[in-house]
Amino acid sequence: MRGYPRYGTAVGFMVLLNALLIFATQATEGVLTDHLLVQLHEDAQDEAHQVATQHGFQSARKVKNVFEQGGFSRQKRGYRNINDIEVNMSDPLFTKQWYLINTGQADGTPGLDLNVAEAWELGYTGKGVTIGIMDDGIDYLHPDLASNYVSTHMSLNVLIFFHSFEGMLINEASVQDFRGLVKNMTPLVLGIRMLDQPFMTDIIEASSISHMPQVIDIYSASWGPTDDGKTVDGPRELTLQAMADGVNKGRGGKGSIYVWASGDGGSYDDCNCDGYASSMWTISINSAINDGRTALYDESCSSTLASTFSNGRKRNPEAGVATTDLYGNCTLRHSGTSAAAPEAAGVFALALEANPNLTWRDMQHLSVLTSKRNQLHDEVHQWRRNGVGLEFNHLFGYGVLDAGGMVKMAKEWKTVPERFHCVAGSIQEPHKFQSGNKLVLAINTEACQGKDNFVRYLEHVQAVVTVNATRRGDININMTSPMGTKSILLSRRPRDDDSKVGFDKWPFMTTHTWGEDPRGTWVLEVGFRGDQPQRGVLKEWTLMLHGTQSAPYIDQIVRDYQSKLAMSKKEELEEELDEAVERSLKSLMSKNN
Description:
The chain is α+β, with helices and mostly antiparallel strands. It has helices at residues 45-54, 116-121, 171-174, 178-181, 202-209, 237-249, 337-354, 360-370, 403-411, 552-592; strands spanning 12-15, 25-26, 32-33, 60-63, 75-76, 130-135, 150-154, 157-162, 188-193, 218-221, 223-224, 257-261, 282-288, 306-309, 321-324, 330-334, 384-385, 391-392, 420-427, 431-434, 439-445, 457-469, 475-480, 486-490, 503-510, 520-528, 535-548.
């Protein structure tokens, strides 16, 4: 538990029980755990360690309250059983890694890749950057890994160091293909072992997310709540505090960078119901396949920031992601958003080498500004532009990460201005709605103008909603910004039959209004989509704005966008004029004939 964040106003101590229980605590979800938080008197640090030592416990840290630690489910994303894998490779196959340099391999689309070659040509390999992989362990006996392995056991986590080596592909679903992303000089990678048990607790998650925050630059997570299309879940109190401490205090105050797989629930699920992927503190990464379409397992939501790649839809044995496998094998069939998140971590490592001073928010801004539409496309969700001209997609976020573009911009990047938070307005009284009648609510705001926390340029926007319905899965929620950008906050989830719990102060988040001026009227639309008639009541909608008071580059983007828009309108007018002249000429010629 070393490196666990200290809470400034805490008066108690947390004792992690990793031995037999002094007394059994039965978790609310029916899982018996051996984790308990214990509060002792102030200034009792020596006594706390003495008690822990006497009973064989491992560590003590400050904490605000006492909690029984209930067990809950957390699942790996993109995991497949070893018996399902038929292709075994023992040699690195660089030419098979189409997501690094795509020449059309495996029936893919040429040019659809992460543009890492440009970053390599600029001399960046990710050297000096530390990436922490939060997963269920590492196959350290693999021949691609063994010579670079040193292990140190620290509390719950197995800390594993990897230095410069080729083929750094860790476990089948932990890390895939940093080999290509960092070429011959890889960043330092630490494996945080935390999913190797049948349940999860708040302590385990919090200690993993805050493990060595002054050493680890980037945390990569390819797991989350169950992707079954009916779960609404997110981080508990300790984990939330650990993440907040990470972005505020990690990396010497520049902030820990959390990269999260958006989820594998497909069209049946919505990643805004995953409190990790939809957190402002994480960079949520979705995936595209090798021809630019969305993968069938991809979840869509307005909190996704960008995309990388996973496998192809076609039954080409080389269309997946190349990675090490267990027992010394390799595979070309890795898939899922669990493949996408580590790719993003590799790209971010290149950017951090180019500019080690980047903050966690700088990395989000760089992702927004340099990610590209490229050839990504979806049959349902079209590409749109927000109020300042930034192009986005409900599935792909701001597009596929561009390593070359990111490192070039990172080299000259100036840290973004201070971030402010504004409660823009709140509607608390109950409003009923039913099938066939959409509920439309509006909040008019000045975005705290005239106050110290005025928000002029948006980053994240949260709609904190409390709503119940006869069938939660049929609820559909949209929100439109004053500049006209519509965000789908919640899509229909056909497998969600909940009629009791609903959403209780759930923070639906959107990144689609990035850079916009939030002043004006925000509109929330709540309705039902489904075959059966449903009834519901919205009890609260609170609008939370997060952003800056100055952002010069946004001003330039707006000017460029407006210039292009004016030019396109001029061209449209010229085309209309040409067409009118042509019609007139044809008409005259017809009459003369």
